[in-house]
Structure formats: C-alpha cells, structure tokens
Amino acid sequence: MRKMTKIAAVLATSVLLLSACGNVDNPSIEKKVEAQAPTKTDTQVFGPHEHLNQKPTPINIKRTGKHEVNVEMTSQITDIELAKGDVYKAWTFNGEAPGPVIVVNEGDTINFTLKNMDPAIPHSMDFHAVHTAPSKNFANVMPDKSGTFSYPANNPGVFMYHCGTKPVLGHIANGMHGMIIVKPKNGYPTDSKVDREYVVIQNEWYKYNDLDDMTNGVPKYVVFSTKALKDGDMNTNGTVGALSDHPLLAKVGDKVRFYVLNVGPNEVSSFHVVGTMFDDVYVDGNPYNHMKGMQTIMLPASGGAVVEFTVTEEGSYPFVTHQFNHATKGAVGALKVTKNGQDDGSEVMSH
Questions:
Q1: Which of 141, 150, 128, 170 lies closest to 302, judged by CA?
Q2: φ and ψ of 78, to 5 deg
Q3: DSSP letter for each residue of 175-190
Q4: Using CA of residue 98, residue 101, residue 106, residue 109, what is the dihedral sign?
Q5: Could you tell me the maximum CA-CA distance found in the chain, to the nearest angstrom?
Q6: Whole-prediction pTM value?
Q7: Does 173 have pLDDT greater than 90?
Q8: Interval 291-308: pLDDT, tens
Q9: For residue 167, is the peptide bond before it cis, meaning its omega torsion is within 30 degrees of 0?
Q10: DSSP state, residue 176
Q11: So what's the pLDDT on residue 348?
Q12: Strands 157-162 and 126-127: what pairing?
C-alpha cells in the first residue's frame, strides 16, 4: 500500500513534465478488471494492473484507397520477460514492446483508431511521421474507450511513435513505443541492390514503473528487437538476448538493409555493425539525406535511419551500440551469414 501511494503521488504531480496532450485521471482509483494468471515483478504492481496480463492483439492495417490506409491498434497491459526470470508488466501497444511496425506510403492519409484496453489509465498516440495539431489528433483515449484520428504522412522516413499522455516519460519507458516507416514514393536509389531488409529497434528498461528512476537513474537494460515487415519474419520484444540468441540471417554477398530506430527514451545510440561498414546511410530514412562509407550512425532518442551494408564472408556479424556500457546491458544482436542464407547451427559470436 505504501508503494501504491507513492506511485499515485508521482503520477498526480506529473503535470510538471512536458506532454504532447491531455491529462491523466487519478490512477490510484481502483477498478474491477478481468485478470489472468499473476506474475512477479521487482516492485509492487500498480493496483488496477495487478494480475492483469492481456493477450497480445494483432495490429489491423488495411489499405482503403490508393492514398489512404486504416490502422487499428490497442493500448494494453501485457507481461514481458525482459531477462530470464525478470517479468515486467509492460504498458504496450498491441501487447508488444516495442509495438508492431507500421508501414505506409509517402502521401498516405492515415485513419488511426486506438482501442484503450487499459482499465485505469488514458493513453494516446503520437506519430512523429505526420503533420497535425497534437491537441486534436494526439488526444487521450480514456480507459475502455476507442478514439479515431486522421492525418497525412507526407514525408518519407523511419519515425518513432509513442504514447503522448502525461507523464510521457513514464508511458514510453513502460513500453509504449515503436516504429512507423513511411516509404518514399520514388524509393531509395539503392532499392534494386538490396537483398534483405530488417527492422532493428533499440530501447531501454528501468525499474518497474518508477518515474524517479526513469528520470534520474540509469537503464537496467538496453536492448534490441526486430519487428516483422512481412508474414514469416521474426518478431521480438525488446528483451535481453533477443537478437543474439536468435540472429538475423543473410548469405555471402548480400546487401542488407536495416531500418534502425532508437526509441530511448533517454539515451543516445551509436549504432555499429562489427566487421563491415555502411555503404549507404539515409539519415531519418529520408532518401535526400544520403551519406556513404560510415562506420557508425549516431541516433538520438527518437532518431532513425536506413543503413545498408554488404557481407562478404561467412560468419557472425554482431551489431551493437558502440556506447559499450549499454552493450553490456543487452544492446547486442547478430547477423549470421552463411553460404545459402539459412541458419547452419554454428555458434554466434558474442561481443
């Protein structure tokens, strides 16, 4: 009870933080919710979320016209095992953290619907990929309600999305973040040369739902995940070992494209692939921001890029943030390169 009181007090005073939209109802109010099997976290769970573990919900994306697409998502509470035995009651989009990748075309109008399955707290959606008035179209959706908003995606790139409800830091750090790709209408100059493409997202985890630690502390874990661009692609949460225990794959000679994003919420990423260099880099994923021959791309919190590189020999190619204090906390993945592009069962190099 003492911990719950502290959490309620922190959230109630969160108006001092910057926000994209809206106010939070008093989250100390208890509500009856349907519960699944209880799990353990390293601190006491926020009351209305206790025992709540909502099953991941598939994203619904449907093109309704040449330049119009409907996107339906959920905000929900879902347990995620960040490391062995360390379960986090994450605030998520669709039960994933990061949330599912969204892919639209430059010039599309996005009709976005958010179904808020959280029984106690309002949530919202802040797309970095659109032009709109946040007070109108990034507005809060109240518990057990749905909201629909429309906006144009007129700039190509790799962008962050996140919950913009106060306190924004708490919502992002608890898991409400992800990537939206706006594909350029004329493509990238290197499209015809790319053999494989993957999504790579970096995010941080702090003490469970602890706004003071999220504000003043250092991350407990810094991790990588991948999100499925098409059916059959690997899709992971941001957990320790996700992309080293199960590496991405390529064959010798492939030109590989990563859509890479640092969702933070606080730290910078110095993204680097060991054993190669970036032939082509599109900063923020915009084809006009074309750079060549880079060893590392620096990504601020919410910064994205398209990076492309060629693998010339068999073996495993680790990718890391070159801020190695964060790599030691989990920000390591691997690309396994074989003759035929299939996993040959060989050991993956650690870094």
A1: 128
A2: -140, 135
A3: T-EEEEEEE-TT--TT
A4: negative
A5: 60
A6: 0.88
A7: yes
A8: 999 999 999 999 999 999
A9: yes
A10: -
A11: 81
A12: antiparallel
Residue with tokens 């959280």: 118
Higher pLDDT, 167 or 41: 167
Paired tokens of 167: 């306190």
Query: CA–CA separation, 254 vs 142, rounded Å?
Result: 47
Residues 6 or more apart whose CB falls under 8 angstroms from that of 340 comprise: 251
Give backbone dihedrals phi and psi of 312, rounded to 5 degrees, phi first: -110, -15
- Beta-carbon contacts of residue 16 (< 8 Å; ≥ 6 apart): none
Q: Please tell me the distance from the alpha carbon of residue 339 to that of residue 332, in angstroms, as a whole number.
A: 23
The CA distance from 244 to 318, in Å, is 8
The C-alpha angle with vertex 331 and arms to 329 and 335, in degrees rounded to 5, equals 140
CA distance 165 to 343: 42
- Rounded to an integer, what distance in angstroms lies between the CA atom of residue 156 and that of residue 182? 5
CA-wise closest residue to 182 among 109, 235, 263? 109
Residues composing the chain: 351
Cα 208-214-217 angle, rounded to 5 deg: 105
The pLDDT tens digits for 121-130 are 999 999 999 9
Question: Which among 235, 264, 231 is positioned nearest to 248, based on CA atoms?
Answer: 235
- Name the 3-class secondary structure at 101: coil
CA distance linking residue 232 with residue 249, whole number of Å: 13
Residue found under tokens 């926000």: 19
C-alpha distances out from residue 53 to 38, 239, 274, 316, Å? 8, 18, 38, 36
CB atoms within 10 A of CB 194: 15
Minimum mean pLDDT among 5-14, 235-244, 310-319: which range?
A: 5-14
Residue type, 45: V
Pairing status of strand 221-225 against strand 290-294: unpaired
Q: Please give the Cα distance from 126 to 17 (Å, whole number).
A: 16
CB neighbour list of residue 70: distance below 8 Å, 6 or more residues apart:
60, 61, 62, 63, 64, 111, 112, 113
Cross-strand partners of 290:
282
